[in-house]
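new request in #modeling-help
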Amino acid sequence: MIDVTTLTIKEARKKLDNKEITSVELTGAFLKNAKEKNDKLNAFLEIFDDVLEQAKEADKRIAKGESYPLLGIPIALKDNLLVQGRKVSSASKILENYTATYDATVIKKLKEEGAVFLGRTNMDEFAMGTSTENSAFGSTRNPIDPTRVPGGSSGGSAVAVAAKMAMCALGSDTGGSVRQPAALCGVVGIKPTYGSVSRYGLMAMGSSLDVVGSLAKTVDDAEILFETIRGWDKMDSTTIPNERERIEKKDTYVIGVPRDFLTTGIDPDALVEFENALTKLKNEGHTVIDIELPTLKYSLATYYIICPAEVSTNMARFDGVRYGFHKDGVDRIDDYRQSRGAGFGKEVRRRILLGTYVLSSGYYDAFYNKAMQARDLIRKDVFEVFKKVDAIATPTTTSPAFKIGEKSDDPLALYLEDIFTVSANIIGTPAISVPFGTVVRDGVTLPLGFQLMAPDLGETTLFALGKVLTGHAQTDAVRGARTK
Amino acid sequence: MIHRDEVKKLAELALLAVDDSELDTLTKEMDSILEYISEINSFTADIKNERKKPLLYNVMREDEVTNKESEYTERIMKEMPSTDGQYLKVKKIL
């Protein structure tokens, strides 16, 4: 009997369509892992109680001869995606008992294909964080070393895939929230072009930065999931029209490396693996050149101005009046203060205050306006470079997964985790993290991520190069998870 | 860069109850973050008229009713912390 949890989506599809396995069997295997491992890893905030009924429905459709890439495939969902009639909390106390009143567009698309929803995964509250320690419902643990963080904010989704509690998962990426946990857990994570996937029904954090991304064991799987959820949506005016041309696949690519940007702060062992990845790309016939991007160093400061500004605006809707947690104060205005003060966790409150600060009249020009100018210029500079290269490569993170609690008292240290990932969100371009190489820390082999960024609608480039790099990288991650 | 009183004022503006005992840590943390993001002030560029095509544009379309009458009413009312019959109940405003 094969272990169905090791199958790729394509392999599972074939077996499902050939009636070698049923969705109930496939889903059951992941469900078993999810239930057994969740006490230890806290990847899921809720494992749905109708998972096998959903799988049965999928089997009925398969029996009728229907076939879609994700029909009967068990998927985990980040807890900020709305599924009508199900709880959704963004891992926040303020929405602890909130039930979604409609389906997100990505959910609608998955339902049409007949994907099976396993449950909702843990995350940093409202997606603010890089370690999944900011959840109101406890930290998620890295399956490769449970004393370490899984990264964040889509930490639960990354763990669900890495620990084979789900075949693939959806996350959201505002500054690296899909790619960074993918890197730290040894899975693939894609942040698609801003506007390529609808944000309708995704709880907003930074509206000009947010995008729904996919996490999976292999690049192929991440691509299948992306192709299912992408597309223009009437309900999201920032989605890209379907007729806009996507970048086509090529045989060989030119990859640029911003050397100046890689000088400080990177773990030396991680840098060695990064060079190994570049060598592999060269050996496979691609060209690697050095590029200069002097404005890239402003990305993180730019991000941590724009993001809190948008956070402070988006979080204003939570007032304890129309829905969510309510705490009584002495009067109506105090009701707001008390509900928001007690309902939001530390990091959310911190970002609301920061956002309020950078948008206040005395500081608007010095911070927000300046950041908007920097955003324009970074984009212009990067697109100048994209005239010469097809993709830009950096490590996904400066180091492997760190210990739980190691940085939790230092918000700035956690912000610095995003140094390589935020650029793609500021510019809106797609970026992927693929597992490449490992380092040993305290006797445990930890995965590393290699990041590639392409011009708008260049996902195909990222998938093609990701496949070149990962050949067998997924087995490293899977092996790591298995030793536990 | 930022003082305790300013953080307190910001919390009032953002309608956020912050415990007095929390203010010192919060001020310290915000101070280090603000110091870091002040890096943006060393950024100098003349980018006027650089943007040829706007990244964001308005999408205009006719209003249309996309749901049946009362289709969502019950679901939405169920999420309200306090109701009175078919009404959302709030404290006296005026």
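bot summary: Chain B has a mean pLDDT of 87.
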